[in-house]
Amino acid sequence: MQIPEEALLIRYGEIGLKGGNRPRFEKILASNLRVALSNVPSLTIQRIRGRMLVRGQTPTIEMAVAARRVFGVTSVSPAQVVARNPEAMLEAARTLAAEAIAREHAGTSRIRFKVSVNRADKTFPLRSIEVARTVGAALIADESRLIVDLKDPELEIGVDLRTEGVYVFAGRQKAYGGLPVSSTGRVHCLLSGGFDSPVAAWQCMKRGMRVDFVSFYSFPFVGPQTREKVLRIAEKLTEWQPQAMLYVVPFSPYQEAIRDHCDERYRTVLYRRAMQRIASVIARTRKGKALVTGESIGQVASQTLENLRLIESASKLPVLRPLVTFDKTEIIALAREIGTHGLSNLPAPDCCTVFQPAQPVIHGQLSEVEHAEAQIDIGKLTYDAVQGTERISLLHQP
Ligand code: ATP
Ligand code: MG
Fold first, then answer.
1. 121-168 per-position pLDDT tens digit
2. What is d(CA 25, CA 184) in angstroms, rounded to the nearest whole number?
């Protein structure tokens, strides 16, 4: 008997809906998958209406782990590609069911299951319902603990009948959905070593943005471990996109000028405005369409509605704040899920703690801010910061 061929079946959701844009989104998705799976020998990605089929000389279970991290993908299933006849299909279904039961249902007395059939190939000799019945009956004959439950199955055996081939799979591993990175444009995220901004960056990638990173580095008031920490976070986040740039901006001269010449209570707001100004300049030379921060309403003194307004008014680009409505506990949970929590948790001071005022302003006023900024040479400080910026190019490491 011929050994069935293994492949990874990839489903994508939203991008299927985009009408005329669809081929473009699919192309980007395929290209991002190719990067995520670039360590797979003899990789091929085949587009079959509404799905992608990935083959290569790596176990499909391993390919599934990498493919789940590609935004746009809604779920994946390791599958067997079988000959276009009922016997081959049945054989694959029995093998896959037996494996899944041994792996996930040992020691249970009943297993709710269903067979789902998608018959895109209308010339296949059996109708969907007949395939489902035949496969279901064969599985029950093999395993008496199986009971049919179409609404809430614990085990799903899927049969996808297409003109390109017949695919049989057990279960679907959910992925994150969203849109493929780079399909909606490029943004620059103000990345600190905290918990929030990495999660904000991830949320934007999920909506199809390529995210580059801008980090403000107050050397020598904070040490090299702070730069190292941010670099590692940026690398970690680049596991979710093909590539990124990290800009490390020397920030101390700006902060010293603010310390020496401006109202102490406004320091944090002024730092944040300086960040927006510098990041806008960097972003605009790189076709960035927006800035992103990890700010969330009410979390700290600088995050009142009034202060957020003051901060964003220093930006030349729209400011996206994906976490505005998130609680800290929700942010921490997501940070764990995406793998940045451990890094953000490492001890290293951030630039904002440098010369921190005892009594920061809570409801800042634009007139005060403008007065404070008139005392320093914003143009030169911004120019020097951009000129002194270190540029680090990051590539996805499969
Ligand atoms: P985070 O956990 O992201 O540091 P936070 O709750 O600690 O956020 P702040 O420290 O007030 O909040 O920072 C608000 C936002 O300003 C951050 O989410 C980030 O986008 C930006 N930011 C703060 N410090 C830096 C920095 N050193 N470099 C780049 N961006 C920064
Ligand atoms: Mg912070």
1. 899 888 999 999 999 999 999 999 999 999 999 999 999 998 888 999
2. 10
Neighbours of 52 (CB within 10 A): 22
3-class SS at 122? Answer: coil
Nearest to 310 by CA among 376, 377, 385, 361: 361
pTM over 0.90: yes
Pairwise CA distance, residues 229 & 116, whole Å? 47
The ligand whose atoms approach the alpha carbon of 195 most closely is 1
* 215 C-beta closer than 6 A to ligand 1: yes
Report the separation in Å between the CA atom of 253 and the middle of ligand 2, taken as the mean of its atom positions: 19
Q: What contacts 122, CB < 8 A, 6 or more positions away?
A: none
| pLDDT given for residue 320 in this prediction | 98
Cis before 349? omega within 30? no
Q: Is 223 left (phi over 0), alpha (psi -120 to 50) or beta?
A: beta
Provide the phi-psi class of 304: left if phi over 0, else alpha when psi is between -120 and 50, else beta: beta
**Inter-residue contact 63 to 56 (CB < 8 Å):** yes
In ligand 1, which atom is closest to the CA atom of 199?
3
CA-to-CA dists, residue 160 to 118, 119, 122, 125, angstroms:
5, 6, 12, 14
Q: Which long-range contacts (CB under 8 A, 24 or more apart) does 31-35 make?
A: 31/242, 32/70, 32/71, 32/72, 32/180, 32/181, 32/182, 32/241, 32/242, 33/67, 33/70, 33/73, 35/242, 35/243, 35/396, 35/398
Cβ–ligand 1 contact at 350 (below 6 Å): yes
Which residues are in the CB-under-5-Å shell of ion ligand 2? 192, 194, 350
pLDDT tens digit sequence for 312-357: 999 999 999 999 999 999 999 999 999 999 999 998 777 667 778 8
2 pLDDT higher than 70:
no
pLDDT digits (tens, 9 = 90+) for 169-202: 999 999 999 999 999 999 999 999 999 999 999 9
Give the mean model confidence (pLDDT) for residues 201-216. 98
Domains of the chain listed by start with CATH number: 5-174 (3.30.2130.30), 185-395 (3.40.50.620)
**Does residue 293's CB lie within 6 angstroms of at least one atom of ligand 1?**
yes
- pLDDT, residue 15, reads 62
Number of the ligand closest to the Cα of 356? 1
